[in-house]
């Protein structure tokens, strides 16, 4: 995955906090919390919304009360000039649905469009019908309107740009709705730059990302949206919340740890917590933590400020009502690492809100944060006796910025270390005992003492372990957890290690090996066939200028295919070229990387050229990557073949 650039990180760190003209002096409440029907699409119905509402009602005591009916609820045409619900999907009407939700203690939200048509589903927009539509939805008992920006008749506004048109249409509906209905500005592609003026329009929320599509259920997309949101939150404040889009927890595209990270980042950013998954399927361990929700709903209403970032590792601080702070340590990278933040001199109570562990510190706030993970502390002046904060590291990286998880091979022993640091430094730790939890069947043996009678302020205790996954262990990621038990408490630190099988001795075709990662512009990388089209397994025989190859890798540049080699291999060779399936079109450059160094480059090859032999020395490298660049133009037709790709190892 990509690292946040230094320039972007610097921009985030230097953003000022701005006053909130137009915002209420006292917020009516925190950011909206609830559920959206977006995942149902045009299969939405009265029955499906009621089922979801029943699940949401169980979460209502935590603040989840908004049921947001997204597109496809409208009939295709107005009835006697008025909006109407689709009679097949909502035969009982919207008022009956609103009454039912109100009986459950919930609120109803509807999507409307500022243009001539709804964004999807074919229903009418509210353009030039704002007053009538607002009066109608009020009569139905609607509590919240999400006003979309679709099908805008720009020709009716000659000489005006998109922002100027929005500054006419959004306030028109806001005023028509009146104060009894919350109003959300939903301009997904950011073309109206709502963060610059939404406060004065009376919007409760306004979208901050620059995607013209809903947020995908994927970690990298979520992080991209968070970074964009962080550039906008300087304009947010009580009653006017920056909205980076829906909470994805429960949809299945991310791990639970990644969902917890999204929830953490949204909560510390004072963002709406609106679920996209069925509320009954959303993991309660993620979405039902009352202390994390309290940070999001804090009455001060201030979004977090990014106080430190180097591109991979981020520290965010959110001031809270009463003088406490929420501090988030976020590790964007692919390997667990320690992230730290220095508080002003003093003695502090630090409660990690996901684990519930309470510790004290004299100013150093640090944690060994799992890959793609985030920890959230609530920090305030120390009011109780609690153990000092311990930083517990499991298989820490050898150098800052090492983004790969630790690697092991089935049946082979490897040494790792664990470290315990008395980073809180408020007291001496006594009778320290360190244990390492590994998957069933693995062997972990302490090679150095795992106990220590005391650990003074600032001291570090390191244990070396011999770790062996059994022969036949499935190549994938596994959790290792270190527990530091001591008089008066425990602390833990978790890391992910990966098991991979390195090549055997002799010459092996790379298409017969498992890769550790593969990125491809269009469709998956194919084994022993060309890239083909988008679907997996649709490739054709590898062919370069009429020459067929039985073995190899078919990619579409830009592509990046990584193999674990364990430092035992000597050379890589292949024939590089553009596959004949695209004719004379396409161009790509072919590279070999050994750890962090490029060791071979083909130059740019086109579809009109024959294959070119590429040989590279990879002696001592732990990882080897085959990379195809797009040839310096675009990615069209760049079907890049690594024909007869093979590696020779000792």
From TrEMBL:
A molecular-function term among this protein's GO annotations: alpha-galactosidase activity
Record-linked SMART domains: NPCBM
Cited Pfam families: Melibiase_2, Melibiase_C, NPCBM, NPCBM_assoc
Top-level lineage group: Bacteria
Catalytic activity: Hydrolysis of terminal, non-reducing alpha-D-galactose residues in alpha-D-galactosides, including galactose oligosaccharides, galactomannans and galactolipids
Catalytic activity, EC: 3.2.1.22
Signal peptide as annotated in the record: 1-25
EC class of the enzyme, as a word: hydrolase
Alphabetical keyword list: Disulfide bond, Glycosidase, Hydrolase, Signal
PANTHER family reported for this sequence: ALPHA-GALACTOSIDASE MEL1, ALPHA-GALACTOSIDASE/ALPHA-N-ACETYLGALACTOSAMINIDASE
Protein name: Alpha-galactosidase
Organism: Nonomuraea rhodomycinica
């Amino acid at each position: 995955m990509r690292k946040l650039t230094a320039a972007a990180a610097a921009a985030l760190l230097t953003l000022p906090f701005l006053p909130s003209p137009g915002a209420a002096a006292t917020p009516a409440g925190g950011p909206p919390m609830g559920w959206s029907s977006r995942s149902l699409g045009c299969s939405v119905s009265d029955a499906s919304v009621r089922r979801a509402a029943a699940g949401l009602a169980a979460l209502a005591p935590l603040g989840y009360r908004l049921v947001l009916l997204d597109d496809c609820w409208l009939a295709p045409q107005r009835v006697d000039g008025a909006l109407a619900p689709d009679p097949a999907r909502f035969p009982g009407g919207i008022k009956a649905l609103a009454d039912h939700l109100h009986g459950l203690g919930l609120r109803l939200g509807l999507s409307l469009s500022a243009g001539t048509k709804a964004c999807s589903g074919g229903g009418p927009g509210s353009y030039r019908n704002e007053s009538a539509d607002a009066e109608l939805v009020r009569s139905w008992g609607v509590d919240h309107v999400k006003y979309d920006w679709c099908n805008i008749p720009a020709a009716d506004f000659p000489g005006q740009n998109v922002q100027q048109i929005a500054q006419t249409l959004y306030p028109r509906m806001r005023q028509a709705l009146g104060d009894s209905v919350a109003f959300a500005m939903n301009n997904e592609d950011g073309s109206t730059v709502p963060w610059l003026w939404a406060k004065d329009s009376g919007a409760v929320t306004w979208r901050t990302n620059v995607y013209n599509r809903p947020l995908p259920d994927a970690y990298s997309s979520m992080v991209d949206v968070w970074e964009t949101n962080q550039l906008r939150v300087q304009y947010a404040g009580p009653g006017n919340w920056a909205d980076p889009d829906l909470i994805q927890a429960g949809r299945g595209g991310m791990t639970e740890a990644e969902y917890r990270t999204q929830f953490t980042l949204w909560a510390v950013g004072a963002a709406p917590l609106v679920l996209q998954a069925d509320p009954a399927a959303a993991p309660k361990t993620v979405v039902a933590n009352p202390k994390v929700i309290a940070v999001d709903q804090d009455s001060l209403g201030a979004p977090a400020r990014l106080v430190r970032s180097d591109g991979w590792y981020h520290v965010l601080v959110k001031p809270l009502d009463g003088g406490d702070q929420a501090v988030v340590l976020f590790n964007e990278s692919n390997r667990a690492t320690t992230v730290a933040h220095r508080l002003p001199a003093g003695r502090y109570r630090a409660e990690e809100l996901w684990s519930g562990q309470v510790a004290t510190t004299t100013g150093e706030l640090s944690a060994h944060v799992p890959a793609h993970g985030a920890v959230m502390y609530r920090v305030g002046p120390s009011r109780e006796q609690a153990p000092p904060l311990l930083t517990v590291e499991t298989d820490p990286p050898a150098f800052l910025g090492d983004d790969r998880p630790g690697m092991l091979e089935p049946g082979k022993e490897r040494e790792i270390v664990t470290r315990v640091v008395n980073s809180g430094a408020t007291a001496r730790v006594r009778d320290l005992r360190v244990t390492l939890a590994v998957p069933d069947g693995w062997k972990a043996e302490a090679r150095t003492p795992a106990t220590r009678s005391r650990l003074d302020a600032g001291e570090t205790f390191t244990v070396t372990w011999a770790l062996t996954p059994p022969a036949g262990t499935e190549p994938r990621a596994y959790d290792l957890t270190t527990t530091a038990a001591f008089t008066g408490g425990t602390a833990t630190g978790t890391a992910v290690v990966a098991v991979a099988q390195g090549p055997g001795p002799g010459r092996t075709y790379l298409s017969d090996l498992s890769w550790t990662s593969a990125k491809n512009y269009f469709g998956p990388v194919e084994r022993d066939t060309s890239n083909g089209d988008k679907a997996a397994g649709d490739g054709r025989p590898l062919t370069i200028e009429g020459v067929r190859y039985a073995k190899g890798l078919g990619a579409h540049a830009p592509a990046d295919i990584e193999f674990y080699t364990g430092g035992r291999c000597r050379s890589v060779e292949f024939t590089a070229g553009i596959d004949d399936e695209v004719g004379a079109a396409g161009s790509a450059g072919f590279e070999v990387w050994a750890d962090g160094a490029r060791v071979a480059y083909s130059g740019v090859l086109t579809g009109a050229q024959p294959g070119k032999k590429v040989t590279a020395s990879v002696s001592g490298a732990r990882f080897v990557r085959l990379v195809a660049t797009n040839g310096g133009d675009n990615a069209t037709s760049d079907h890049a073949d690594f024909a007869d790709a093979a590696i020779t190892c000792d």
